[in-house]
Specification:
3 domains; Rossmann fold; alpha/beta; about 40% helix; four-stranded parallel β-sheet; binds iron/sulfur cluster
């Protein structure tokens, strides 16, 4: 089918199925174009609340669909591609959390939303890159076990000097492929460009940022800024929305295409097939969902 025909077929099926389509900024632009809502992880976790549609179709990675299911257990949640999964979500195991809990008093387990439902279940609060700093600052606990992303954890810790952090060694292989050498080279070529950095990058890259924030934060900053040029230190899918919102501004890569292979698994054909067949709905046990929900609800409450 031609792209336009697939898009028409998706619209038709979406209505028949009473479905809503959500997409992260990192998926291919053709997929972003057919989504009802596009956003960062935090926005996508909120926009699914209290929707009238029966079916939620997620164009993103598995932890996003799981979070939607946990927050809306009565809804059917399907993934455009069931194999699209964030490796970081599996970089910590439950035993590590239980060990740290046994070692420290006055401890909060702060879990980046890029994690398995089982890990959320054992955590006190979830965070995303857009609210991690605000939430950790709000917590009364002295000790913070920040899981699984080491880089986001260290960035948050650098802004919370009064707290004691225990870090884990999780990372995003996409963002850590961005090196400070490449960023400095891009800055040499575009000296008047602002450097916008996602906090999943390593600290030496973060330190070069004129702005550090989530994908939505980066888009917002570039849109409000009086600057005309920006070096973008995050996944390439964000360029679509950046250009949509700022057609006259210039956006530069750090020299190589920063590509999340899992986000890029999603295509229009897969969206169509998932809607047509109802794919394989996300299923989680009641006991995991109810406790994991507390960590997500705590995030929504503390982020406001
Ligand atoms: P945000 O959506 O919070 O910017 O995080 C980016 C990411 O890597 C999602 O997997
Ligand atoms: Fe996971 Fe990184 Fe891909 Fe986001 S960009 S889904 S953190 S691998």
């Amino acid at each position: 089918m031609e792209q336009q025909d697939i898009k028409q077929a998706i619209y038709k099926l979406k209505q028949e199925r009473n479905a809503i389509i959500l997409a992260h900024y990192y998926v291919d632009e053709s997929v972003q174009q057919i989504a009802d809502f596009i956003g960062d992880s935090y926005y996508l976790s909120k926009v699914v609340l209290n929707r009238p549609e029966e079916l939620i179709l997620f164009c993103g990675v598995k932890f996003m669909g799981e979070s939607a299911k946990i927050l809306n257990p009565e809804k059917t949640v399907i993934m455009a591609d069931e194999y699209a999964d964030c490796p970081m979500a599996h970089m910590i195991d439950p035993e590590t959390i239980l060990d740290i809990r046994a070692k420290y008093d006055d401890l909060a387990v702060v879990c980046y939303i890029n994690s398995d439902a089982e890990i959320k279940r054992l955590s006190d609060v979830c965070v995303t890159s857009s609210n991690a700093l605000k939430i950790v600052k709000t917590l009364p606990h002295k000790n913070i076990f920040f899981i699984p992303d080491n880089n986001l954890g260290r960035y948050v810790a650098s802004k919370c000097p009064g707290k004691h952090f225990i870090f884990h060694d999780g990372f995003c292989h996409v963002h850590t492929s961005i090196t400070s050498e490449n960023v400095l080279k891009a800055k040499e070529i575009h000296p008047d460009a602002k450097i916008l950095v996602h906090p999943e990058c390593t600290m030496d890259v973060i330190d070069l940022g004129d702005y550090v924030g989530s994908t939505a934060g980066i888009i917002d900053y570039a849109t409000r800024s009086s600057s005309e040029k920006f070096i973008i230190c995050t996944e390439a899918g964000i360029f679509y929305e950046l250009k949509q919102k700022n057609p006259a501004k210039k956006f530069y890569t750090v020299g190589h295409r920063v590509f999340c292979p899992n986000m890029k698994l999603i295509s229009l054909e897969k969206v169509y097939n998932a809607l047509k067949t109802y794919a394989k709905p996300i299923e989680l046990s009641e006991s995991i969902m109810s406790k994991a929900k507390t960590a997500l609800v705590n995030m929504h409450r503390l982020a406001e």
